[in-house]
Amino acid sequence: MEIKEWIENLPEYIPGKTIEEIKIKYNLENVYKLASNENILGPAQEVEEAICNGAKTINYYPDSNCTKIKNKLSKKYKIPTENIILGNGTDQIIELVCNCLIGEIENIVISDPTFLIYEKAALKLGGKTIKVALKNYRQDVKSLVDNINKNTKILFLTSPHNPTGTIITKDEFEYILNNVAKDKLIVVDEAYYEYVVKEEQLDTVKYLKDFPNLLILRTFSKIYGLAGLRIGYGISNEKIIKALNKIRLPFNVNSIAQKAAAIALDNEDYVKNIRQDIIKEKEKFYNVFENSGIKYIKSYANFVLIKVGKNDKDISTDLLKSGFIVRPGSNLGLPGYIRVTVSLPEINKKFLKMLVKTYKN
Ligand SMILES: *Cc1c(COP(=O)(O)O)cnc(C)c1O
């Protein structure tokens, strides 16, 4: 049996170490995963109950249409359900959208570095990637637009950006919308949207009526605390949503995820409280950094990019030995930095203490 050549040549995905593995390897009692920007508190109580209750009807196939969640999202955003698609994580919607638009001639335009899934989804289809360097840790909107060519099908934006935590401003967003041809799709991945301070949250959904080439992605994996269930959504023009629906598998979102997400949408206070807690905790991070002369990038998300110098892998290993799993920048296209998820106050405090110690060594 001969596997396609490009698959043979593709590097294998190496997942991060689990908490259990690290506990055994370094003989530790407590290990904290600060590497994947998860919400350590998990979902709200009633969502957890919905997950347990979901087991009772697990013998049935899920609702292929995700009707309940779509109705709730439709109300929340004041848009028809025809403009919404649910996915097995937003990762899946990124894949679907590339499947719809990318072939061997076509390309996507992305920032460098950015979330890795965009490039992977395009490469899989034989498509090309045009990379535009970040400017001062921010997406360079002018250069992104200038790099679009006749074979470009998708421009991927991420706000807040991963791995830097910076956002695209209203002016920048409007510049992009107004300067990209309508036959190119603009995807704005807002996985960390709910973590942005309320005053700076850009209402991207309102642009849909004037820009049918816009696709907005949001997820239940981050602030809602449901990363393990795999559910996210996309909002766009009905023509695009229809195409995505045609090629997705019929039962792409499992029934427990659907139940949990529907209940999660009823509790806006939960989201608001988490946001406020994280904002407060980030201030503590910044204070420690400033007092210790550690450079960092101000973040709008629930993680912070910290400048540690050449040895980001060594520092990450040292932190690992103390029970903190962080993401070395070398693995994210940003050597010399580490990316750390902001967690609960007591964990953050321990982490900051350890970081300052490790940093000075
Ligand atoms: C975490 C993350 C996502 C979420 O992916 P899911 O598949 O919904 O879990 C999407 N985009 C970015 C930039 C992320 O960091």
Keywords:
Aspartate Aminotransferase, domain 2, seven-stranded mixed sheet, alpha/beta, Aspartate Aminotransferase, domain 1, 361 residues, binds pyridoxal-5'-phosphate, four-stranded antiparallel sheet, 13 helices
Topology:
Elements lengths: L4 H5 L9 H7 L6 E2 L11 H10 L12 H11 L6 E4 L2 H12 L5 E6 L4 H7 L4 E6 L7 H6 L5 E7 L11 H10 L5 E5 L24 E6 L12 E5 L1 H10 L7 H10 L3 H25 L3 E2 L5 E5 L4 H10 L2 E2 L1 E2 L8 E5 L3 H16 L1
Parallel strand pairs: 1-11, 3-4, 3-5, 5-6, 6-7
Antiparallel strand pairs: 2-8, 7-8, 9-10, 10-13, 12-13
Helix pairs in contact: 3-10, 5-6, 5-9, 11-13
The protein binds pyridoxal-5'-phosphate (PLP).
Pyridoxal-5'-phosphate binds next to helix 5.
- Mean pLDDT value: 96
Which ions, cofactors or small ligands are bound in this entry? pyridoxal-5'-phosphate
Order of helices and strands: HHEHHEHEHEHEHEEEHHHEEHEEEH
- The tally of structural domains comes to 2
